Amino acid sequence: MGSEMRNAAHGDGGYAGLLKGGGSPGIFAAVFVGSLPLGMLPVGLVLAVQSWTGSFGAAGLAAAGFSGGNAVGLIVQGWAIDRFGARRTSSVTAVLFVGTVTLFIAFGNSGASSTLFLSAVVLSGVFLPEITTAARSWLARSSFDAPTRVAGYALLGACFQGGIVLGPLLVSSLFHPKASTTPLVAGSVMALLGVGIYLWASFRSDDSAHGDGGARPSESARRVPAGGLGRILLIAALTGAPGGVLVVIAPRAAHVNGSVAVAGILLAALAAGEVLSSLGFGLVHARLSARVQLVVALTASSVAFIVAAIASPSVWLLTGAFLLIGITAGPSAVLLSSMTEAAVAPKAIGRASGTRISLTLLSTAAGSAVAGAVPLPLGFVLAFTALPFLAAAVVAGFAGVKHR
Questions:
Q1: At 367, is the pLDDT very low, low, confident or very high (cuts 50, 70, 90)?
Q2: Which of 94, 103, 282, 319 could form a disulfide with 120 if both were Cys (CB 3.0 to 4.6 A apart)?
Q3: What is the pTM of this model?
Q4: Exposed / middle / buried, residue 347 (Cβ in 10 Å: 0-12, 13-18, 19+)
């Protein structure tokens, strides 16, 4: 077992114990690099398909197909990680992902039917290597103490969000109308690089947490709270929809203000708030139970949306409100990750984590669809979006979600 595991067990705790020696720093680097394709491909697909077909409708369908495939892939790969281990799963999916992206590019450049290249898009979403799920599974099964694992979930969230934010910026810098598939090729390279870093780092850390899906010896007798996962999944579904609303609200605000750059500024503020609060939350060891912390965080998110509704007439005040929404969202994401670890048996952590994130993605898509279809002013939409967080806070506070 790696030296960083022994150090954490002796109380180094926090980020210091998490990143000391062994392969742990590499695993977090792999999460960041492996998240870049998730930020690059949806945008890259839209640009490539639009350049081939001249239709934003077909481009949007391709992006939706990729997201839908990715939601399925989260569940399938989570199961595979539990059954076959993260190393085997990530290695196989990396090859399949590159193969399906190559097929998509070949179909698009050859003028093949939309059915063929859309099928390749869906499959590429399914096979996108879920390095973040693998890392969450590793962290839950590792020998780090509980405070260090919570800090680990915070750092994982920050690395993941950083990749999502940087991905579209890379697409903007790489795209050229005469080489519209360059961002897709670059995304495939990033996926391979992320898997390569993960494999290298995993062999330098705790072997039992990566290779065969086994649990820590100390975890084998852990009591698993009955019904806890169902409540966690419900909370994840409720809190995913508001994120989808914001994806639509940002371009609407840009249109109202006559500047495309406004949408990027708003979403960047949202992501920056979540990254900063996730990292900060990992440094805090609160005396309150995780359930109480979650209720506080969810309630704070609902308040942040009310603030955004009030601030909506001013783009600069709205930018600050988006930053506040991100700040309140970070702790909830960290807490749901650590609660998932406590709610299932160790052998099912990958599956449970993948299912939770998949539900969040589907809920996000639903939120975007509803926000796009509702012809209400921005302020009203933002105010109504506080309701899912209040409902999630009720579920967390009164339905007995448990965490150890």
A1: confident
A2: 103
A3: 0.74
A4: middle
